[in-house]
Amino acid sequence: MNGRSKIRYGMVGGGEGAFIGAVHRMAAALDSEYELVCGAFSTDADRNRRSAEVLGLDPGRAYATFDKLLPAEAALPADERMEALAIVTPNHLHAPMAIAALDAGFHVLSEKPMALNLAEARVIGAAVARSGKLYGLAFTYSGYPLIEEARVRVARGDFGRIRLVQVEYSQGWLSRPIDRDGNKQAEWRTDPARAGLGGCLGDIGTHAFQLAEHVSGLAVESLSAELTAHVAGRRLDDDVAALLRFEGGARGVLKASQVAAGDENGLRLRIHGEEGGLDWSQMEPNSLTLRWLDRPTEVIRAGGPGLDPSAMARLRTPAGHPEGYIEAFANLYRSFGRTLRAGAGRAGAATPPPRGAADWFPGAADGLRTMAFVEAVIENASGDAKWTSLAG
């Protein structure tokens, strides 16, 4: 970062054997802007110690619990203590940890969903407001360069007034009852006490919803939904379907499933306006297809000609060199870090840039919207009303 010291960050969760913690660390390291200085990686003492050793941390800053991490770090000199905390735990810990860290004077970058429910999310929002600290959420897919290109093209009216928004997120890894067979990642995600109100809904349905609103620039006003648990005995949904009514008259469909046997990570977004539309797939992220009423189909390539400067700024390699999930994640970390630095030293000035700004990243507003979506889906799916309003 132009000769400046790295941003010192800590991590809670993400120890040995955890997937998403390693992804966060790779993303933070990609631009050499962050340094991991401390953590409470596991409540298992041996796993916590081994994790810290592998990561090369000072053993004295591998804390046995989160409750020990915050006061110990706060007591260190300002030029040594962590500046930001990455929260990569199961969902039930997101809110209490984020609130405690913000109130202790640390910036927070948290895994999604924001909290267990909308009420918890609002308490986090209040903590962000009173602390003046940054709060970011790992809605990773909004960090892809061609998602930014898609958002720009919709916003400048290339397709005319938007009529249709279709988003699908299809996985198959929960097609069997692995949550009852010892798979720890599956086990907590299907436990209401740790996952929250929704299973598939909270885990990947929130990603689909956030991406649809982010790229379309439109807010969902109401929805009609169905939740299903296809695997016998499963306590939370593993399949979601929702009809969406957007502001301005656009209509949409959201489909998310974790029991689409054989599917890997099939996130796909299609948006259509009066004159044409776009099509993007996460498993082929370097291509954006544009289709028109009155001219040939175009395929826009990452790094190729014609990209908006804001999309180009999110690219890291020349055209033809595949970029993917880690790079998209790193874009969020880079934006978070630059915003942190820009606001350093000015109380309350470290606020997320507006959507469309060069260093925008998902924050509390995205978290509140997605939690409102989760609760509206559950309300609608469990009742007799045809449509449920999505407020806030």
Please give the structural blueprint:
Elements: E1 7-13, H1 19-29, E2 34-40, H2 45-54, H3 66-74, E3 84-88, H4 94-103, E4 107-110, H5 118-131, E5 135-137, H6 145-155, E6 162-170, H7 184-189, H8 192-195, H9 200-216, E7 220-228, E8 239-246, E9 251-257, E10 266-273, E11 276-281, E12 287-292, E13 298-301, H10 309-312, H11 325-343, H12 364-382, E14 388-389
Parallel strand pairs: 1-2, 1-3, 3-4, 4-5, 6-9
Antiparallel strand pairs: 6-10, 7-8, 7-14, 8-9, 10-11, 11-12, 12-13
Helix pairs in contact: 1-11, 4-5, 5-12, 9-12
Condensed summary:
The protein has 12 helices and 14 strands.
Using the alpha-carbon principal axes, give the shape.
globular
- What is the CATH fold-level name of the largest domain? Dihydrodipicolinate Reductase, domain 2
CATH superfamily of the largest domain: Dihydrodipicolinate Reductase, domain 2
Number of domains: 2
Query: Structural class of the helices, strands and pairings?
Result: alpha/beta
- What Rg is obtained from the alpha carbons, in whole angstroms? 21 Å
Beta strand count? 14
Please identify the top-level CATH class of the largest domain: Alpha Beta
User: What assembly state would you assign to the polypeptide chains in this entry?
Assistant: single chain
CATH architecture of the largest domain: 2-Layer Sandwich
H/E element sequence = EHEHHEHEHEHEHHHEEEEEEEHHHE
User: Strand percentage, roughly?
Assistant: 15-25%
Query: Helical element count?
Result: 12
Low-confidence segments, given as residue ranges, are none
For the residues shown, what is the average pLDDT?
95
| Fraction of residues in H or I helices | 25-40%
What distance lies between the first and last C-alpha atoms, to the nearest angstrom? 37 Å
